[in-house]
Structure formats: structure tokens, C-alpha cells
From TrEMBL:
Matching Gene3D superfamilies: PRC-barrel domain (2.30.30.240), RimM (2.40.30.60), Spore Coat Polysaccharide Biosynthesis Protein SpsA, Chain A (3.90.550.10)
UniProt protein name: Uncharacterized protein
Region (Disordered), start-end ranges: 625-661
Organism: Ceratodon purpureus
GO biological process annotation, one example: UDP-N-acetylglucosamine biosynthetic process
Keywords noted in UniProt: Nucleotidyltransferase, Transferase
Keyword Chloroplast belongs to the record: no
Length: 827
């Protein structure tokens, strides 16, 4: 049968419906001509259905229903003539339910529920006030030709009104769609009759034809009935409505929630073959559904068919825009994979293409190459003025909390004062922490974990970086609640992930049960990725495979757009957070949630905090913090301050700015520093010696300001070795594993955000590198710096140094010294 249907030219989605609805080949033969024309006429644009007396345009999901209705209606006629059909007498005489009561001052109160609709009045006909009526009843002769009382429902002055009329006579007009011409008493001119155009004709519900046949059921009886599978006697749903499209009926059935997990409505043709039993007494129908019928209109993976089609259309539109864009950008080669491979592979490529912002890629490339060509580091640069130092040496005395807690602001020990102020901020829930963990850890080489934070350090008790950091967070929370016993702070820990690290990171946290933290305090935020490009002119996007673009996270500066895009800054602000510490996951000694840092920044009323250590050699792979004097066009903190000014004043402001320079803090990244700057010395010391250790702080107010699109960070180029695949001349795809940098990752750098802050509001803090900076950048090896081994050694060395001082036992009202020591050691 399927092939006969296909030969009728119906689309596959209609074929299934037809197959289910047409009970026999002979029926099929008889409906062939008409259903094809219907299906064509439904097309994709102009489907309509007749319901409640009006033609409604069908949306996509309803078209299949329209087809069911139509085909079903023709099939039902045929089936009936063959003895297969069911009839629902009065099924269209649906109870008036648009208004619960209708009354007017002149009329007695009438209960609309006492009526059923029998037709709609379309227009006047001829000069004697005849009215054309479209039937909504199975008894048109009786209703429109037999003289007697009828009722008219209209909306008068915005309210439903029901009036009694007398039918004088009526006759059927045979046409494409039958209708009746009726004459009503008192409406004998076209003008008078036209008052009734659009009205509904009613009869009293109790005026039910006595002639209901054995096979005929009444709509109010059907609605609410249980729908049972004949074979299994399983209840699958309830009839909620009956739909008619002329001469046949469809039961609208709501499937039981437990069966489908959701409110799902399906259509069941009301024909004897499919609904063999109608038991009015027991309020149930039994059905024999053809295979697949119950799955029609059932959402798949949470989407209804309509939603799925809508999604599909949207995808197509987006995809065609992507294709145009890629062609315009000279990157159409990334679409080559669509002509090869299997459906899943091609789909994967389409899915990926839809997630990439190619406009942003273009901007990033322009910015990055603009930056390279402008001698960005040649402007006026200065090392920062004297930087305060954190001194934890006398931390043992901090355990005497009474001394500091009362008047911490008066303490002349700076670090202790900052510590206590910071603890107070922690206790008051005013701080949060971000770990930058979106990097791909490529420098660690193969064989490492997929995510740097999962890297285990070979300590007496093996611990991953994430675990060490989580423990510090727990410790600082505990220390805060010891000093402020009424507080039980939970510092939000925001884990910045990327496409490359998100899934393994989440799985790791799950597996480790969040290291004892409360799950709700860990917020995963995924940053964007951008495609990697080659070094040739034109910068072609590199392909990891024909169906996958090589992409890389947008660098640690991607934090800001990710935080804003995911409303994290608003959330922090709503929760009362004022300061956020941001650090790179690869530092084994990082003091997570460091109260000293928070207290210091708070005291300085800073918007940006930057921890630095002394750079130990010209070759150390660290960025250096500098003060820039800049007159370039990029907006700085001064633009920020003026951006809110009135337009009328902006011209003057711009003129003033033209001749002025502004200073701001920035970091000269190690791979962008000239040799002269890198090696410049002042006596024995390096001139640029404030090494950026990627432990920074931002006020939430400042993060809010960074949401200004004018302040979006620019992009830098990171040259990398990126394995790729390429189609050779013979059309074969070959893998290339370069031994030299062959590609560019486009990255934003977190410290570029310092630029928009008034230098007065930037708080630099020098810390001891042996205590706070043990970066893990490289795979371990003889004489290789910054490895898991060197970091482990630093942790153990710190622990040894501290264990030479004996811990004090905690006393009432004092901080437990072992906790403080553990926090400082990190293990
Ligand atoms: C963009 C950025 O933040 N780069 C940081 C960051 O560089 P890496 O490329 O991740 O090693 O960590 C360094 C310290 O470990 C820091 O000195 C440098 O400035």
C-alpha cells in the first residue's frame, strides 16, 4: 500500500497518515483523485481547515492533521458505504462555550450551554433576504429545511446575545461545498438579513433528533471518554475533542501523562476499523490503532513535530546565511566535508558551523593583525611605582583574633589588617572566586589529563590541582566562620571551562563529589572558542577533520564575555558579592579566596587587584606589569568616564582628549616583549620586574562596566603547532602533524581589562614567589622549568619551612593555628 500511496505523489509524511487511515485498497482507489488534489492544495503554504464554522489557516503541525481530516473524511465516506464507517451524529453541534451566560436587559437570562451550534450564516443571497448557511450539523435537512424555531447567536455591543428566530423555509445548494439557503421571519430584505451575517445558528440542546442511529454517537457523550487499547485493555488517554472536516471525524485524544511523560495530544480517525467499540454507558472507546498512529504528533526528544519542523527551517535559514558568509570571507573550504562522509559526520559539521561566530572571527583576525602591525609596545612604558608587599611572616600572631577583630583597621601590621578585613568580607558573603580552567593544556604534551586542573601532584597524598584549590576554599570559609562564628560563608567558585574542558571538568567534579564543597557553590561557565587559522595570507581555517574545524578557546580574557553572556555578573551582584578573585588553574601555590588580597583591595577601594612576584630572569616566561602612557584611539578608563556624558558635550570632550594622553596599567606578555624591554636592567635588577602571575581581582562594579561593548577586549595571536587535515590534489584527505608552529589561536588576554581602570583604582600587591607562585606549564623533564615536579617541590618546601614553627592549639575566641597554617601551605 505504501507504494500505491507514494505513486499518488503524496509527501512521505502524508504517506504514513494515508497508510494508517485507508482501511482497504478499494477505499484507496476511490479516494485517490481527491486526496491527491487535497494534498497538493494543502501544499506547504495554503492549508486550511474548517472548524467551528470558519476556515482556519493551518500551521505546519496542523497540516498533517488537515490531511488526516480530509483523507479521513473521504475515506470515511467510502468506508461507510462499504460498511466500515462510524458516524458521530450531532458531533458538530458542539456546545456553545464561548460565553457562559448570555443575556440582555430585554431578554430573559439564557444559558448558552443549553444550545448547540448547527450552522454559520455566511452571506445574504438574492433580493428576498435569503441567507446562505454553512452546516455544522449532521441533520441539515431537518435543521435548515423544516420550518420552526431556531436561535441566533451574535456579538452585540461586545457581548454575546442569543435571539429566537423562526425558520420559514430552506433549500440545499449543491456545489463544491454544500450549503443551505434559509429564510427567517422578519428578515425579508437583503439589508435586514445582512444584520445576521457572521452569526451562528443554534438549536436547543434538548432538541436532539430522535433518529440517532445505532452507529451514531453524540459528541457530548464522547468527550471525556477513556480511550482503551482493545487488545491489551490498557488505557492510553482521554477524548478531549472531536474534529470534523466535512463528512468524517477525528478524535482528539490526550495521552495519559504517565504514558508519555507530558501532555500530548494525538488524532485518532473515528472509523470502525480503528475504533471498533464505543461504550457510552462505560464511558470508554476501544481502539485498534494501526502501527505508528499513537506516535504521530508525539514529541521526540522533548520537541513536538511542529517544533522540530520549525527548528529545521531555522537551521536551514541559518545555514544558508553561514554559507554566504563563509564564501564572502574566503573560507568556503570548510564546507567541503558536506560532500563527503556519512550523514552523522555531515550533521556534526553543520552543528559545529552553527555554533561559530564567523563575524567575530573576522574581527578578531583584523584586531590581532592590526595589533601586530602597530608597534604596540613601543609607546611610553614605565615600570609601576613602588608596590606594597604582603608579609605573612608573623601569621602565628593572627591566631589571636581578639586583638585584630575588634579594631582591625587600626592594626599597624598591614598584612594582618588586610587578612582580617578580608575574612570579614568572606564572612559577609561579599567575595567570589574564578578559576580560569578553559585552556587546552597542550604544552603539557600528550599523556596528560584532558584538563590541567585534573593534574595530580605526586605529593605524599596524591592530589589534583582542583582538589588542592577546593581545600583552600574550604579552609578560608572555615577560618572566616571561626572569627565570625555567626557566619557560614559559601564562597561561589566559578569554574571557567571551554568546549575543550567543560565535559571532563564537570565529570571530574562529580566524581570527586565537589571535593567536599557544596555543589551549589560551584558554578561552571563555558567560554567561547574560535577557529584556528593557518599562517598563510588569507588565514584559512584549519580543519581537524573534513567534518570538524580546529577550534581553540578564546584565551583567559574570554572570561568577561562568558560571565556577561551567562548573566553571572548580575547574579553575583544580586547575591551581594563585591570582589572576585580570578586565578589561573595551573598555579599549585595559589591562595584561593585569599583574605589578604580582598582586604587589601577593599582598603584601597580598588576595582582591579594584581598580584605580582619579582621576575627572576629575562627569560622567564611571564608577562610584566607596566604603566602605559597612551594616546591611541582604543577606549581607556577615561573614555569610560566620558561615555556617559551628554552628546552635546561630547565634542568638547573628544577635543580635550585628542591632545591628552592617559595612563593605564597593562601587561606586556612574554611572547610580545621586545628583547630590549625583556633584558633592560637597572643595576642588578630587571627594569620590568613585576611579573604577572595571573592572580588578579576585579570589583563586581568594574565587571559591570566591562559589559560595555565598546570595551570588548582585543585579540592576540598565539602561534601554535596545530595538527590538521587537508584534501590533496587527488581528492584524498591527509593528516598533517607539523613540527613547527603552523597556525594561530586567537586569544583575549585577561590583563587587557586593566586598561579601562583608572590607575588609582588598581591595587598591585607583591607576594613571595616561593609562597604563591608555582606554575605548571611544561611536561616534566630534566632541567625543565614550571612542571608538575617543580610545583610539587615548591609545595613541599613551603610545608617544611612552616613546620619548623610549632602550631599553637586553638583557644576560645582565637583562630585555630593548624587551619591557618594549612591554608598558607596549600597542602
Ligand atoms: C594572557 C595571560 O594571562 N598570560 C599569563 C599566563 O601565561 P601562560 O601563557 O598561561 O603561561 O600566565 C603567566 C604566569 O603563569 C603570566 O605571566 C602570563 O602573563
Amino acid at each position: 500500500m505504501t507504494s500505491s500511496i507514494a505513486s499518488l505523489g503524496a509527501s512521505p509524511c502524508y504517506s504514513l497518515l494515508l497508510k494508517q487511515l485507508i482501511p482497504s485498497q478499494s477505499c484507496l482507489e476511490r479516494v485517490r483523485g481527491s486526496h491527491v488534489s487535497f494534498l497538493h492544495s494543502v501544499g506547504l503554504q495554503q492549508a486550511s481547515r474548517f472548524r467551528n464554522g470558519v476556515f482556519e489557516r493551518l500551521d505546519d503541525s496542523q497540516k498533517s492533521v488537515g490531511a488526516v481530516g480530509c483523507v479521513s473524511s473521504q475515506m470515511a465516506d467510502v468506508a461507510r458505504s462499504e460498511g466500515h464507517g462510524r458516524r458521530v451524529s450531532g458531533r458538530l453541534e458542539s456546545v456553545v462555550c464561548h460565553a457562559s451566560r448570555a443575556s440582555s436587559a430585554a431578554e430573559p437570562t439564557i444559558n448558552v450551554e443549553d444550545f448547540v451550534e448547527i450552522g454559520t450564516i455566511a452571506e445574504t443571497h438574492g433580493i428576498y433576504g435569503e441567507l446562505r448557511v454553512r452546516s455544522l450539523t449532521d441533520f441539515p435537512q431537518e435543521r435548515f429545511e423544516t420550518p420552526g424555531t431556531r436561535w441566533i447567536k451574535r456579538i452585540l455591543m461586545g457581548r454575546p446575545s442569543i435571539t429566537q428566530v423562526e425558520l420559514v423555509e430552506g433549500r440545499e445548494i449543491i456545489g463544491k461545498q454544500s450549503s443551505w439557503l434559509v429564510t427567517l421571519e422578519g428578515f425579508d430584505t437583503p439589508e435586514k438579513a445582512s444584520e445576521l451575517q457572521g452569526a451562528t445558528m443554534l438549536v436547543r440542546a434538548d432538541d436532539r433528533p430522535a433518529s440517532l442511529g445505532e452507529e451514531e454517537d453524540y459528541i457530548p457523550d464522547l468527550v471525556g471518554m477513556d480511550v482503551i487499547i482493545e487488545e491489551t485493555k490498557e488505557k492510553i488517554g482521554t477524548i478531549v475533542d472531536i474534529h470534523n472536516s466535512g463528512a468524517s471525524d477525528l478524535l482528539r485524544v490526550q495521552l495519559t501523562a504517565s504514558k508519555r511523560g507530558k501532555d500530548v495530544l494525538i488524532w485518532i480517525p473515528f472509523v470502525k476499523d480503528i475504533v471498533p467499540v464505543v461504550d457510552i454507558e462505560a464511558k470508554r472507546v476501544e481502539i485498534r490503532p494501526p502501527e505508528g498512529l499513537l506516535d504521530l504528533n508525539v514529541p521526540s526528544e522533548g520537541l513536538t513535530r511542529k517544533e522540530m519542523r520549525k527548528e529545521e527551517r531555522k537551521r536551514k535559514a541559518i545555514f544558508s546565511a553561514i554559507r554566504k558568509r563563509l564564501t564572502a570571507l574566503g573560507q568556503a573550504h570548510v564546507l567541503d566535508g558536506l560532500t563527503t562522509g556519512d550523514e552523522t559526520q555531515r550533521q556534526a559539521l553543520m552543528d559545529q558551523l552553527m555554533t561559530i561566530d564567523f563575524g567575530r572571527l573576522q574581527q578578531a583576525l583584523q584586531h590581532a593583525f592590526g595589533l601586530l602591525s602597530s608597534d604596540s609596545v613601543a609607546g611610553e612604558l614605565q615600570p609601576p611605582p613602588t608596590i606594597p608587599q604582603a608579609n605573612w611572616a608573623d601569621f602565628e600572631s593572627w591566631t589571636n583574633t581578639k586583638k585584630y577583630k575588634k579594631r582591625p583597621a587600626n592594626s599597624d601590621n598591614d598584612t594582618a589588617r588586610w587578612w582580617f578585613k578580608g575574612l570579614q568580607l568572606v564572612a559577609d558573603g561579599e567575595v567570589a572566586v574564578v578559576v580560569l580552567a578553559g585552556g587546552q593544556a597542550t604544552r603539557l604534551g600528550p599523556g596528560g589529563p584532558p584538563v590541567k586542573g585534573m593534574l595530580e601532584l605526586n605529593l605524599p597524598e596524591a592530589k589534583s590541582l582542583f582538589e588542592i584549590q577546593a581545600e583552600r576554599l574550604l579552609l578560608v570559609q572555615e577560618l572566616a566562620s571561626q572569627v565570625y562564628p555567626e557566619a557560614a560563608p559559601q564562597i561561589p567558585w566559578i569554574v571557567l571551562t571551554s568546549d575543550a574542558t567543560d565535559a571532563p571538568t564537570r565529570a571530574f567534579f562529580d566524581e570527586k563529589e565537589y571535593f567536599g564543597l557544596d555543589e551549589s557553590q560551584v558554578w561552571f561557565v563555558k567560554q567561547d572558542s574560535l577557529p584556528c587559522v593557518d599562517l598563510e595570507e588569507g588565514h584559512n581555517i584549519l580543519l581537524e577533520s573534513p567534518w570538524k574545524l580546529a577550534v581553540a578557546p578564546t584565551g583567559n580574557g574570554g572570561l568577561f564575555s562568558a560571565l556577561h553572556a551567562q548573566n553571572i555578573v548580575d547574579r553575583l551582584s544580586e547575591e551581594g558579592v563585591r570582589y572576585v578573585q580570578v586565578y589561573s588553574v595551573d598555579n599549585a601555590l595559589v591562595r584561593v579566596g585569599d583574605p589578604v588580597f580582598f582586604g587589601y583591595a577593599h582598603e584601597k577601594e580598588a576595582d582591579v587587584g594584581v598580584k605580582v612576584v619579582k621576575r627572576n630572569s629575562p627569560d622567564e616566561a611571564v608577562g610584566v606589569v607596566c604603566l602605559h602612557k597612551d594616546s591611541e584611539e582604543n577606549p581607556t578608563h577615561e573614555d569610560l568616564d566620558t561615555s556617559s556624558e551628554d552628546d552635546s558635550e561630547s565634542d568638547d570632550t573628544d577635543m580635550t582628549r585628542e591632545s591628552s594622553t592617559s595612563s593605564y596599567y597593562g601587561v606586556l606578555e612574554y611572547n610580545e616583549m621586545t628583547d630590549t624591554l625583556r633584558t633592560a636592567k637597572e643595576g642588578d635588577d630587571l627594569v620590568y620586574r613585576a611579573a604577572h602571575i595571573c592572580v588578579n581581582l576585579f570589583s563586581v562594579d568594574y565587571l559591570m562596566k566591562l559589559a560595555n561593548p565598546k570595551l570588548e577586549l582585543g585579540f592576540h595571536t598565539a602561534l601554535k603547532r596545530i595538527p590538521f587535515m587537508k584534501e590533496d590534489e587527488s581528492g584524498e584527505w591527509a593528516t598533517h602533524v607539523p613540527d613547527q608552529p603552523n597556525g594561530i589561536k586567537l586569544e583575549q588576554f585577561i590583563f587587557d581589562a586593566f586598561k579601562h581602570c583608572d590607575p588609582e583604582k588598581v591595587a598591585l600587591l607583591e607576594v613571595n614567589r616561593n609562597e604563591e607562585f608555582a606554575p605548571i606549564k611544561n611536561a616534566s623533564g630534566e632541567g625543565i622549568p614550571d612542571t608538575a615536579e617543580t610545583a610539587r617541590d615548591m609545595l613541599l618546601a613551603l610545608q617544611n619551612r612552616l613546620s619548623s614553627t610549632s602550631p599553637e592549639a586553638g583557644q576560645d575566641g582565637e583562630t585555630n593555628s593548624s587551619l591557618l597554617r594549612a591554608y598558607i601551605c596549600g597542602i
